């Protein structure tokens, strides 16, 4: 009963591509969740980017006020605050996206289970 | 369930009021409209963003019996308030709980010593004579009488106590049995050294409170056992047909598609590993989702294009805690009863959302399959167990009820040939 | 003379690094992609090296110097550009894993016309980006060396020398060389900024106090009229009736102009070919994402310093211009006539000729690293997407490599020619910083033509090849037309908006893409494409193999002991 198809099936058992595999439905789900994450973060990003120059029109204090010496809140925001904000939002988005992908695609790591196999109830 | 939005609306309204008060009335020249609106908008945003986390409070490592915790509240304020409130016996009659109870009771009974025993040994002793009466000793002789008769025994003479230590200061005793509802499990003993008896009524009253606590503890334990048993049954009851069909599918593909066969075997082993290894009543949604995905991909191998699935998952829901083995049975029902009978197949949609404002996790499993006939639907919603129902909805509803009490909602809508929608709402944990 | 020596030594050092770690056996794969095994931080530094060109190194400080707060929008936009990259592009781009942008779009949309159109757009962007770099090297040469060679003007000599040096480096080094040199070069730039910032602060510069002093009188810049220079107050674009101040908005842009500029820069980064090519060298999609986080952090640090130095230059140069005769030649009442000189002058004020030399080297390094990245991207798209695919289907690796290198030569020569045609003096005064402004045009082109198509191709299943072509052409044509109109209109209120056209052209491109896509049929095998682009199976496999390898090595070394 040994046909030739099975003959070349003796590849390394743990590195075959079958061990890690995504189905289209799973990928589609992860994709839509990630898209939601991305759009949410872009919305926050856009709001802040627009708010910094726009606040000048609404609030005199924003560009006329003085925090320390001659530094207005707007100047401080443009000179340091925005960069910190970019970094924070990027870190948050990257962490969330990675966590989403980890939970929505693939399974828990399997290597750890092999040694425990013996302790399973018969 | 939307009990979170109303307070928020109130708070926002108050904030605007405060902003108006400060900027328009208190500040000497009132601030401009733009400034006021801006401050208000900022405050509102901060409130809306911060509200859910403020509502959630610090994340505690909550144990898993919210239902039982509810039952226990509201039983304070009996004769001796301190005892009623602290309830050291709620975890059952153990040496540790008995010790704490004895420490608690001893100061209330001036000059007396207090002992708590089970049916054979002293579990705790507090007060004069504690130097030679220790926990783990055999019970004094008259205890057996109290245990056997289930009634209070009064010991007036020192000789009856048969204490081997000649210097023992204890002379009289009141021994009251403790029950956990239907059987006596131990005694409460109050000794005195001045020759008088402790007031029998007080001691019996205390024993009554303790018995009530023990009864509650027993009730809790039994309830938990029942839920555990249900879950164990569910775990053991993975449909043999499912395994059978999957193995058949795999066997039929061995020769044509070795790669897919390997994938399916890996998924099958994932599926069973999850069932076997899962412990406790709750798991992260992400884990349950993995289980559902594994199950669906196995079914898809069998049904091919006839079973399509669409997941719609909120990023926040992935870390929420949900009861184990609830979602997969819902999906299984949708495939088995909804789609399998339809020639052209259909789509199962699993939608999971979190509402941080109302602290609710909502999960919806919908299919566009055969639907449930009206009479069967009525029987299911009445809680009867449908015969073709597999791991029926009544089972799921029962487990949810024991986990959440009244704080969950499970709705089923179905039209014949129009599909079924199962809506589940549980508290966010 | 010592400073020239220093400059030569430093350049020689950077060049020799490139030659020393040159791969011994050059294959096309290694030439373009450095074998795809580059660490997250190294890759982040290399991306920064590619990204921070003369526009960032000299241009941002120059723009802040010339128009204060409004000049800072450049830095904001450059740094913001990586946020959309991270959110929309980094991970899927890496996971789909091709050689270059045209390759990516061509395979994703399964269309040859998309590939050819995007090659054309990519070449256009690269050219638009190369010209300001060449201009910057000309400016540096003009100030630093001051004299031409062989009858050429100093400016022309600078342009030609830098172009020749770059062509040599790319031809010799390959990309593995440049990944490391890019990282090293970026660290050099950062070190120079940190050094300068430390010296400036140590010499008594106080940020808030300097701002108060600068904002105490209206902003005024030198203007040439009738052969003499005099200071003229800058008109406030937000409130024309009141003067503009250094620390307040209005010095350069109207409300709309600010948005248009930030949007142009923020969207442009995602379409820059030399930056996007770097993402293909990340080991996994997750690593590509984390690389971007690092880039954003490093860029934030870099631009914070750049803005600080621009402010410091405005304050310090004014204070010392009267005492230093060489400075008096460059300034009018304490304000530099060419704002690009700001950092160079600051270097000389605090570090003498050696300080000037260091800044000049930094600027040249910024120019060189960016040009190298651009030329490599250009070579990749010519050699890989055109030569191997259409001209010589059976090309050996060697032939493809040489085709790429020949393309480098042509593109570099072309950009040098354009840079020679542009006279920086003819354009200054019109813009806060000519180099930064010209780079904006490249960003606008990239953000209009490529970014919308990119985002749609990755996140919208229905995108088709025809739609992408329509989108790219619409975006490019709109952007170029508006830019040209802006240059021709000169100093009118709308010119600034016209020269940052992304705010109009990107939506146009997106609408065109969507409309044409809906009318045509998407590729057949969408599920397979989607699994490859958004699935993590390949990533997980790579991580597991890496883990097994590490475990195996660990076990073997334990047994060996």
UniProtKB/TrEMBL annotation, chain B:
The chain crosses the membrane at residues 31-52. One of its GO terms (molecular function) is phosphorelay sensor kinase activity. SMART domains: HATPase_c. Its EC number is 2.7.13.3. It catalyses: ATP + protein L-histidine = ADP + protein N-phospho-L-histidine. GO terms for cellular component: membrane. Residues 326-429 form the Histidine kinase domain. PROSITE patterns: HIS_KIN (PS50109). Keywords: Kinase, Membrane, Transferase, Transmembrane, Transmembrane helix, Two-component regulatory system. This is histidine kinase.
From TrEMBL, chain C:
GO terms for molecular function: symporter activity. It is a multi-pass membrane protein. One of its GO terms (cellular component) is plasma membrane. InterPro entries: Na/Glc_symporter_sf, Na/solute_symporter, Na/solute_symporter_CS, Sodium:Solute_Symporter. Its main location: membrane. The chain crosses the membrane at residues 72-93, 114-132, 152-174, 186-207, 253-272, 293-317, 354-379, 400-422, 434-460, 467-488, 494-519. It is found in: Cell membrane. Keywords: Cell membrane, Ion transport, Membrane, Sodium, Sodium transport, Symport, Transmembrane, Transmembrane helix, Transport. Pfam families: SSF. CDD domains: SLC5sbd_u4 (cd11480). It catalyses: L-proline(in) + Na(+)(in) = L-proline(out) + Na(+)(out). One of its GO terms (biological process) is carboxylic acid transport. Belongs to the sodium:solute symporter (SSF) (TC 2.A.21) family. This is Sodium:solute symporter. It comes from Streptomonospora alba.
């Amino acid at each position: 009963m040994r046909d030739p198809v099975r003959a070349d099936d003796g590849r390394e058992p743990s590195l075959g591509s079958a061990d890690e595999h995504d189905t289209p439905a799973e990928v589609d789900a992860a994709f839509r969740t990630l898209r939601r994450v991305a759009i949410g973060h872009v919305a926050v990003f856009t709001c802040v980017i627009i708010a910094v120059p726009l606040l000048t029109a609404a609030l005199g204090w924003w560009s006329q006020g003085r925090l320390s010496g001659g530094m207005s809140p707007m100047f401080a925001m443009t000179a340091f605050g925005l960069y910190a904000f970019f970094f924070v939002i990027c870190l948050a988005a990257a962490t969330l996206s990675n966590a989403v992908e980890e939970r929505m695609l693939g399974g828990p790591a399997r290597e750890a289970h092999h040694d425990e196999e013996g302790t399973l109830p018969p | 369930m939307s009990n979170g939005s109303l307070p928020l609306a109130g708070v926002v309204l108050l904030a605007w009021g405060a902003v108006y008060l400060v900027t328009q009335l208190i500040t000497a020249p009132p601030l401009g409209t733009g400034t006021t609106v801006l401050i208000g908008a900022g405050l509102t945003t901060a409130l809306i963003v911060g509200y859910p986390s403020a509502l959630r409070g610090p994340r505690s490592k909550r144990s898993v019996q919210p239902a039982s915790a509810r039952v226990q509240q509201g039983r304070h304020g009996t004769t001796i308030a301190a005892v009623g409130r602290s309830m050291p016996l709620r975890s059952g009659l153990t040496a540790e709980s008995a010790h704490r109870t004895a420490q608690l009771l001893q100061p209330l009974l001036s000059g007396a010593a207090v002992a708590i025993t089970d049916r054979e040994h002293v579990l705790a002793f507090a007060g004069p004579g504690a130097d030679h009466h220790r926990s783990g000793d055999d019970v004094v002789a008259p205890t057996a009488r109290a245990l056997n008769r289930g009634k209070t025994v009064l010991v007036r003479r020192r000789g009856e106590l048969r204490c081997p230590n000649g210097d023992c200061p204890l002379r009289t005793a009141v021994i009251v049995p403790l029950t956990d509802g239907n059987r006596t499990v131990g005694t409460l003993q109050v000794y005195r050294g001045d020759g008088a008896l402790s007031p029998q009524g007080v001691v019996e009253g205390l024993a009554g409170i303790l018995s009530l606590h023990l009864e509650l503890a027993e009730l809790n334990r039994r309830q938990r056992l029942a839920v555990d048993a249900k879950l164990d049954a569910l775990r053991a009851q993975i449909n043999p047909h499912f395994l059978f069909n999957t193995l058949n599918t795999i066997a039929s593909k061995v020769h044509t598609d070795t790669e897919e066969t390997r994938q399916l075997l890996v998924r099958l082993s994932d599926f069973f590993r999850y069932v076997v290894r899962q412990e406790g009543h709750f798991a992260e949604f992400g884990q349950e989702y993995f289980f559902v995905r594994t199950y669906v991909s196995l079914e898809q191998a069998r049904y091919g294009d006839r079973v399509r699935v669409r997941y719609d998952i909120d990023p926040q829901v992935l870390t929420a805690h949900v009861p184990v083995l609830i979602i997969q049975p819902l999906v299984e029902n949708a495939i088995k009863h909804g789609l399998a009978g339809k020639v052209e197949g259909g789509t199962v949609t699993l939608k999971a959302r979190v509402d941080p404002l109302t602290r609710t996790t909502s999960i919806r499993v919908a299919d566009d399959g055969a639907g449930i006939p009206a009479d069967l639907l009525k029987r299911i919603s009445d809680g009867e167990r449908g015969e073709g129902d597999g791991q029926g909805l009544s089972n799921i509803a029962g487990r949810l009820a024991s986990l959440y009490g009244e704080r969950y909602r499970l709705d089923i809508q179905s039209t014949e040939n129009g599909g079924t929608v199962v809506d589940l709402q549980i508290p966010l944990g | 003379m010592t400073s020239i020596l220093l400059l030569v030594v430093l350049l020689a050092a950077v060049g020799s690094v490139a030659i020393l770690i040159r791969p011994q056996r050059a294959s096309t794969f290694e030439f373009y992609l450095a074998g795809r095994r580059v660490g997250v931080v190294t890759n982040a530094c290399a991306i920064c090296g590619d990204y921070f060109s003369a526009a960032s190194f000299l241009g941002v400080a120059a723009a802040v110097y010339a128009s204060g707060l409004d000049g800072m929008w450049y830095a904001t936009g450059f740094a913001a550009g990586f946020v959309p990259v991270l959110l929309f592009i980094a991970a899927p781009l890496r996971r789909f894993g091709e050689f270059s942008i045209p390759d990516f779009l061509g395979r994703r949309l399964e269309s040859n016309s998309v590939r050819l159109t995007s090659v054309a757009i990519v070449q256009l962007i690269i050219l638009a980006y190369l010209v300001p770099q060449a201009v910057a090297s000309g400016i540096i040469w003009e100030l630093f060396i001051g004299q031409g060679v062989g009858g050429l003007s100093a400016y022309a000599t600078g342009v030609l020398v830098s172009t020749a040096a770059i062509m040599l480096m790319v031809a010799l080094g390959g990309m593995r060389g440049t990944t490391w040199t890019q990282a090293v070069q970026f660290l050099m730039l950062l070190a120079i900024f940190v050094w300068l910032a430390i010296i400036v602060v140590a010499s008594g510069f106080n940020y808030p106090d300097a701002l108060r002093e600068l904002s105490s009188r209206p902003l005024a810049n030198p203007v040439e009229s009738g052969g003499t220079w005099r200071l003229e107050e800058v008109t406030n674009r937000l409130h024309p009736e009141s003067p503009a101040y250094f620390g307040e908005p209005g010095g350069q842009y109207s409300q709309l102009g600010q948005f248009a500029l930030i949007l142009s820069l923020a969207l442009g980064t995602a379409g820059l070919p030399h930056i996007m090519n770097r993402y293909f060298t990340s080991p996994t999609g997750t690593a590509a994402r984390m690389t971007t986080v690092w880039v954003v952090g490093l860029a934030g640090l870099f631009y914070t310093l750049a803005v600080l130095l621009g402010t410091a230059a405005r304050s310090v140069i004014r204070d010392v211009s009267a005492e230093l005769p060489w400075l008096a030649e460059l300034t009018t009442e304490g304000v530099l006539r060419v704002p690009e000189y700001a950092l160079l002058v600051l270097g000389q004020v605090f570090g003498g000729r050696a300080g000037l030399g260091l800044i000049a080297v930094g600027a040249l390094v910024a120019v060189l690293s960016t040009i190298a990245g651009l030329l490599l991207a250009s070579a990749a798209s010519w050699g890989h997407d055109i030569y191997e695919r259409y001209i010589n289907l059976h090309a050996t690796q060697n032939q493809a490599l040489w085709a790429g290198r020949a393309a480098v030569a042509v593109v570099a020569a072309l950009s040098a020619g354009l840079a020679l045609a542009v006279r920086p003096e003819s354009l200054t005064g019109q813009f806060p910083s000519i180099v930064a402004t010209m780079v904006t045009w490249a960003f606008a082109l990239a953000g209009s033509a490529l970014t919308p198509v990119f985002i749609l191709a990755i996140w919208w299943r229905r995108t088709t090849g025809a739609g992408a072509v329509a989108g790219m052409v619409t975006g490019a044509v709109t952007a170029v037309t508006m830019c040209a109109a802006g240059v021709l209109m000169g100093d009118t209120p709308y010119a600034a908006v016209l020269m940052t056209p992304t705010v109009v052209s990107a939506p146009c491109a997106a609408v065109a893409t969507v409309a044409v896509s809906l009318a045509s049929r998407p590729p057949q095998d969408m599920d397979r494409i989607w699994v490859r682009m958004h699935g993590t199976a390949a990533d997980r496999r790579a991580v597991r193999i890496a883990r097994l390898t590490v475990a195996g090595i660990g076990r073997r070394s334990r047994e060996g002991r």
